[in-house]
Structure formats: C-alpha cells, structure tokens
C-alpha cells in the first residue's frame, strides 16, 4: 500500500493580531513557501495499535504509546480516532517533516495538526471535512497557546486568505490586486502564550486604554480589508504601519522589531509591521516590485535571519483534503 500524504502551508497574520483574541477582526494569509508534510505508511504484519512516529524537526522517533495524553501529536491522533469512532488504529508509521520554523509566528503547530489529522483520516479511509479538521486543530492549539483565537488553525485548514472574527462566519478574501509581501525573521523566538498573557495582565490594569487600542486596531484592519478587496494595498500600506504603532502601544513590540519596521519603511516599503504574537518572530512589509532588493538589504542590515518574499493573490493556497 503506498504512503498517504497531506501537506499544510504556513501562515502569516497580516493585521489584527491580539485584538482578535478580544473579538475583533483580523486578516491572515497562507504562506506556501513553508509547509508541513505528514506521510502515513501501513505496516502490514505488525500488531494493531502499533504506531511509530518520526518527526525529525523536534527530534522525535518513538512509539505513540510513549507520548503523554497531552502531547499535541497524541492528542491529534486521539481526536481523529474519536471523530471516526475507532478504538484502535491499524499499525502504521507516521513521518512528519516541516520547513516551518518553530516559534516564529508562521503557524508551525497548527500546520502539524492539520497535516497529521488529514493524512491519518485519509489513511483510515475516511477523509474529514475542513470543519472537523479545523475543530481538531483548534483543540490542539489550546494545548500550545492556552486561549487561541482560532485564526491560525482556520487559515491553515482553509489554505486561503481570510478575514477572521471569533464566533463569526469566516470570510474568504477575494484580493483585487495581487501584491508582494516580504516576511523577515528577526531571529528571536517568543512564546505566543506568554505574549497573549502579558496583554491580558496589562489590560486588567487599564481596561479602557486597551479596549480603545483594540478598537483602533479593528478600524485599521477593516481599512486593510477594504484596500485588499476593493483597492490596492500597495497604496494603503500606511494602515499596516499604523497597526504596528498600535501593537507597540499594547507592549508586544521590541526595539529590534521597531528598527526592522522603520528600516523597511525608509528603504521604500509601502507599509510594515510586526506579525503574530510579537516579542520576536517576524516583521512583514508590503513592497513594490522595484523596492524588493532595497527592503531586503534593509532587513538583512538589521540582522534578519531569513526573508520570505511571496506574492499574495486572490485565491491562493492548495486545500489538500
Ligand atoms: O504568534 P502567532 O503568529 O501564532 O499569532 C498569534 C496571534 C494572536 O492574536 C497573538 C493570538 C491568537 O490566538 O490569535
């Protein structure tokens, strides 16, 4: 029996992060330059329930039975089994390979869950719909992030640009005019759960200030949404830079992230901001084609470790069910 595969893309939050945890809208995009791939191989002749997992990215080469119940891979497999009303699985080997850096705000944890859940369900002969995959991925994100908004698992499940708001119907984005997005890795990782916790604690100390800032972030996000759907984000990049200033005010930027943003803008980017939890991770910039080299040089001069340059268009991302 040939191996069964499933691949999930990385993701980036274009705007609205943190405020999205408090019910405001945010925009996320899949990033197909990075991905996680899960392959499931049958092991005929082995005893049912014998599952071997290999994930070189996290140094894992072990039997599933050795992983705790709260291990994200164990939990994903349990949730797939429960969904399919199975007590046991046929013997198999699961290999997870990824090019998504961990802790860099590119959705590594959600991509692993989505690709693993899809590949395993397909292997078992019962591919699961996106809604179920998304629900499973959200449950597993809770192990990683405590109180996730759900934006990461949703954009990675759908593999398409989205406007996301907790509790609302997800809106796929039809982007009118494609644009170039540069994503520069600051080289510093940070734990999203800690950044979200920090915002929660500061908000408890001054709720009116934080709720006002979240309102402002929501306004900017809707302006970006409008530019994406009806205009040209390259002309409206200043909304993204405004979003960065608001993120700085809620205390999730760092001197390095601020420097990367202002260097990108000085080098000609139309807009730039930190992306995701902050405290490290990535800075993104919307850039006209003739400015890519200059902005790239500016990021590298700040010490960026890696730069992804990607073209964002209407319907991007491959939904691999
Ligand atoms: O660090 P990331 O890219 O996974 O972003 C998390 C986005 C937050 O809004 C900070 C948290 C959330 O759950 O939405």
Give an overview in words.
With 321 residues, the protein is α+β, with helices and mostly antiparallel strands. It has helices at residues 72-83, 108-123, 130-145, 151-158, 192-205, 207-230, 238-249, 255-266, 292-301; strands at residues 4-15, 26-42, 51-55, 60-63, 92-98, 162-164, 171-172, 179-185, 271-275, 282-287, 306-312. It contains 9 helices and 11 strands. The strands form 2 sheets. Strands 1, 2, 3, 4, 5, 6 and 7 form a 7-stranded mixed beta sheet that branches. The chain has a 4-stranded antiparallel beta sheet with strand order 9-10-8-11. Helix 2 packs across helix 3 (130-145). The model is unreliable at 316-321 (pLDDT under 50). The structure holds (3R)-3-hydroxy-3-methyl-5-(phosphonooxy)pentanoic acid (PMV). (3R)-3-hydroxy-3-methyl-5-(phosphonooxy)pentanoic acid is lined by residues 13, 17-18, 20-21, 105, 145, 148-149, 151-152, 192, 196, 276-277.
Properties at a glance:
321 residues, alpha+beta, seven-stranded mixed beta sheet, four-stranded antiparallel beta sheet, 23% strand, globular, disordered C terminus, binds (3R)-3-hydroxy-3-methyl-5-(phosphonooxy)pentanoic acid
